[in-house]
Amino acid sequence: MSRTVVRSRTRTPVALGPALRLGRRLAFAKAGRAVLILSLIGIPTAGFAAAAVVVQSTLPTVQEQLRYDLGHAAAQMRLSGPDLPGMRQDPVQWQLTDSAPDSPVTTADEDSPWADLLDHVPAGAEAIPVRTTQVVVAGPEVPVAVSADEGATWSPALDGHWHVLSGRAPTAPDQAMVTPATLERLHLTVGDTLTVTDPVRQRFTVTGTMRDAASGPDAEGVFLPSGSLPAELPYSVQRSGSDTTVYLPEVAPTWSEIRALNAHGIVVESRPVVLDPPADRLEGVPTGTTVDAYLGAMALVGVFAAFEVALLAGAAFLVGTRADTRTYAIVTSVGGGRGFVRAVVAGSGLVLGAAGALLGTALGTGLGVLAFHLLDDGNVGTWPGLHVPTLALVTIAAVAVAAGLVAALVAARSATRVDVLAALRGSLRPAAARPRTERRRRVWVPVLVVTGTVMTLACGAGVLLLNDRPVQQDRWAVLAGVGVALGPCLVQLGVALASPWVLAGVARLSARLGLSARIAARDARRNPVRTVPVLASVMSVVFVASVVITWSASEHARFVRGYEYTTAVGVATATVSLTDPDGYGDGYDAAVTDRAARVLSGALDGVRLHVLAVNREDAGQESTTITTPHDFVRRDCPTSDTTGCATFLQSVGSGEPHIAAGTLDDYALLTGHRPSAEVRRALADGEAVSLWPEYVHDGAVRIDSFRDRTIDDTALLEDTRPDASTTIPAVVDVQTPRIKIGVFMTRETAAAHGVPLVDGLLAMHLPQDLTPSQYDELSSAWQSNGGADRERWGGPGFAYERGPVDEQATVQALVLALAAAVTIGATAVAVGLARSDGRRDDEVLDAIGAAPVLRRRVSAWQAAILTTVGAVVGTLLGLLPIRALTLRFDGGPTGTTHLPFVADWPVLALLALGLPVVVTVGTWLVSGRGRRPAVRRAH
Fold it and tell me: Maximum Cα–Cα distance for the chain, whole Å?
């Protein structure tokens, strides 16, 4: 009877200590390879560490926010609503309020009473009221409008919100302080006289300089003693009290006292309440901060950067492992098991990853601190303080270490597959083909490519279908969006696995491109361990760039498709629409418009200001007549466009004028070209010109008038029968593109047909938009010379028509620069590894008499092959997710404007073809020219 002996396999414990020591020695045995891997890990780590320091330094802590809000004071009080019960505030985000259902405050109107802040200051508490407004001061040439803070802002209790820079605080009612920028602009020095010309005329002696801590060094402003200005100021929001704050230097109301003040419409920021907030927070108030968005963005970019590092460092480890094959064969021959060899290689990755992480984190932290000190201009609103985020830096360093370890794992697996005898005798035979690996590749490549494509298109359609619902309260749309992002990644993985096939095809095609091209292509095909990671790296970064560029182009196309021109490009317009004392619209007044034109013309050097008459379409408290052009087309517009369903056509009665009257020159200014002969004849003969065909029927326009309209009327104009109508013969002059002028006529024509048009539109042609200083000069001119009319019109607000300018050019440039940087770096790694790994090939070429220029050509061709294949494939794959998100099966719900699919082909061509050309030329220029000394080996 035979007996079967079953032997169980037992794992030999790996001696981690000796393995790590040997791995550490091998990690730095080749200085060039160690520096390369340290750079691949350390440079991205330094970038993320510096970004973490800079970003964290822009986010104030609670103490820093209180330092600015309160200075050294204990609390501040402001009015937020009428003196009626029902309002309550959030204890931390104290300016956010809510109203209890059916409480008295929910029925408040313009006649509801408002509390006096000083009447509700706690008994016996010191109070410092500060009011913010705008004043006009005498300048060296023209009056200047500046911001003014009225109150004891220089008090030590408020140091932190305001800060005294030089001089001394005012001690008399006729003394004031200003910002350094104001001194410079007004050509004053400390001790000179500052003259305020509006809202009162008063002279102050400048005793020193100070500024708001949340303003930059160029901020302008004056600081006046309490009582310097009238109690009632034009354009100050006295009823809401939002321009007045009462600071309490010593007394901090408790939460129960704050709730009592809320019943009077007063909100309070109390230092102890903010530092130790009660659980009674408002529902729906966001408790997170903007740091969450920064962390999310950095995590997303960090994962991508770790992926790139793992690819390129992995290729370096694989090449290093192949160069150290003899070393690993010796380790194996003396009894080192597979686990021990893996631990040695992984230990090298761990050591280099840790070294790169430490160096990168230290360097990045230093750069971040340096950047903070260079960028900090004293504005605590932008740079509240230097913050070194320890947890974020530790996380970044840990990810860097993990990236180094992961990069070494593939090489560790490869190191255990060496032929020990061949390696010991120095054999350089190529690695044997692995049929099993090829069979797996044939299965997984089509599976990944097809699955990723179908997932992207299906989830893209799913996102659109889910977004078409009127209610968005579940996470299905988020899951579908993840599918849109994950699908292209699967396709990229499939293409990366198929890279040996792609490189084999390129090698066959390169047979006709010369000797150097054939050598480069065959070298790339025979050494996938260092070429495939580089190709995948280039492909992935170009994919991201292609997605961003295509998304930007599609968004801009949607913006252009819905953009409505106000006038011709290069024209600035402003309406002189008046308001009554209660803030309601009060139409137009020819006298006010004439005064505004004269005042503003004096501040515009050499620019002709045109004055046009317009119709009134907004109602106020008093009964008025509304005049509109009649639209003869009845339309059903599920979405808006710039022609028959333009927003301008559908906004009749909303306040924007649709009728203008002026001269032939005014018409030429608005349209941007010389009027046609038919338009000139029509205006001369007393006819109207319709720039929109929807306003013309049987050769005439109809002007409807609606009398006795007030703001309380709820009936729409299109549903109301007009009280009077006037028909005027008209010609059609449709502009391309259309502008927001419906009907144009002369003032004589309007008067002849009884159309009530009033001067109320200012227009001028400018080569470019007004600069901030020009806006300031216009505002100062009106504040200085507008007189009583300033209370009816707030001042000029010119809108300059630039057209649908693409604002994404900077984003595209940054994306291209990032793609170029990563591609150049990846190509440099590829060429360097090829030269290191192919040293024996170079020696053979030199031995048979090949010129050094051949190696330069081989390097250039290899760079061209890898970058071109990666860039072209990445660019094409980048179109896939945007194409998926722009699939449409119907028009969608009413009012939605869907994203079109628009590819910016010139920029994409620059990305796919121009970038490889730049990299190839750069490789040609920096490749070595000398010969290599031959090294004899035993075989």
Answer: 129
